[in-house]
Structure prediction request, 636 residues.
Amino acid sequence: MSMGSFARDDDYGFSDLGIPIGAPRTGPPRLPPQYPTELGPMAQDLPPEARWQLGAIAAQNGYRAVGGDPWNNALPERPKPPPAPGERSLMPFANWRAEPPKRTTGVVASEYMLPQSPTDVGLMAVGGPFGKAIATTGMLLDSSPAEAGKVKLPAGRGPLPEKPNIFRQGASVTRAPPPWQEMSVEEFTKSAPQPPVPHQDISRINTYENPKLRAKAEALWETYPQYAEQYPEVGPPALMEKRPDPNKPGKYLSMKPLGEVPYSSFEEAAKLDATPRYFFEKKLLPQVEQFQKDRNTVQREMDLHGYTPYFDPAKRADVDPANYGPFPDTRVEAYPKKAQTQAKFDEMYGTPEARERLQAGYARGKTIEGSDNWYFMKQLEDEYVKELGPQAGRDAFRKEFSGMMAATTGGASPYDNFLMSHYANYLSKKGERVDQRAYEMSFPVGGRFASGNMDQAQKYIDRGMTPFDAAKNPKRSDFDNAYLGNRMSGTMDEQMFGAILPGETIPEWYGPATRVLHEEAAKAGTDPRGFQDVAWAGLKSIKEEAAHAEKVAKAEKKKPGMGHNIAPFESDYGGPMINTINRSIETTHRLTGMPREEIVRRGLVLKEIPMYGLGAIGAGSVMGNVARSDDYQPRE
Prediction:
């Protein structure tokens, strides 16, 4: 497998502070929905470093309507009216709007204190050109001199050098409440509990707006009709040099290469690529790189402002398994034949601790909106039937959707999985081979283990797209059949097996592991597939929460009081698979201008045209991850 398959230079996601991953820190934090966004011109001067610092401070309330600020003053439920003449106070600093910086030096903290209404509380972190916070303080301004404790001073702005907790605003000085550094993390993050955001309703994700981003994205709509009928052209790859392994002389590390190596001919570079020290990585042509950037902008605007999904996620339904069965039982097909081996792995995988972790994941998953019915795809199946007829439509749905998704899902996120699956079908329909190396694949196809996945796709095509062998490839078999309505297909993927044996990703024997899943599903009063999709979301959330707590603890250990700079924990679960389909339809429509109905017919069903998009969730959010699933072979 080419190391280029690890390349994710076109990734787009969000960090804990709401800052796009893989992009410069030039954007503001996500704004709380109750805050207004129409600000005065001074906010436009805020440099990117300062806006990023503000994001770190504003993170204490998690960018959500929480009902109170750090000092437990009630926040307004809707934007306040403009202040009366002469009225002055400080607005919460999470109000900053996404505006381009007009300058990056000479920032004065108090220049960005915008009067709005009495007794508002704000936090400020001002970053210099190098992103270093140079002043952090709380501030309370009020129209009443008695309450604010104002004293007359010569006109001026900014902090008083000798008294860092006092700010000069014009000709007045005001004293802040206790500095946030003196508060505990618990006090600082205390807020009203919030109901979960329904993942089914994605027509409006946030209640605040970024007019500039909206205008920028809308200006890009329908600007790439040349990519409506065919994928972007593929340029020559970059030759990358690996970093030597300091602990193993003569060996090289897979990650963080030393850099790109120029070459005069492809033949010369190919010889180096064949050695352990070098590898080819996909490199986009300039026009395709611009397409990537514009796609990211369109996707970011969709994530912020929402969109109307083509398929209503709230109406998702299961396909009828009677049209696809009978299904193999991986508990039997992938179970050891020798009694001694059976007993060994039944005991190893079925410990009380393993079962407790699975049940804990299921219990957590039930609290996550949209965690159930992840595999429900009848809305897509209906499109196949409408276009091709009942028999041919369902046959194509089984071969080209569920089967190809299973073939290309090794180690991939749902979005990468879908894009690879569609690309494989697209090439196959044109009579081209799909077993390409990652650097040969058209944008935006790629991701973790892309080359290996496309190899599997070619093998799947070569054998006539027949169902996967439940004994030799049980994970792909279960993943495939779960889409086809088989409620007994509980996929034992990395997330699920990690609950059985923490730290492990693949069972030595699949059958004994999935038997435990089936037994725990029965205890929970549900079927194995229903147990898996809910427990998967819950286990992921538990793992993420533990990682978040560790991150906060490290921040506190490094400098007490700094843990609040990390946003409160929130799972990045992306909802059911139909959400991925909807996002791709909308992104493709906005970029190419092709009508949505045509994209569904010619793209999703007939595989005649490309599909674009990018997932909002990271590569670690892998539902149905079947990495190394072909390692399962009958052995005794």
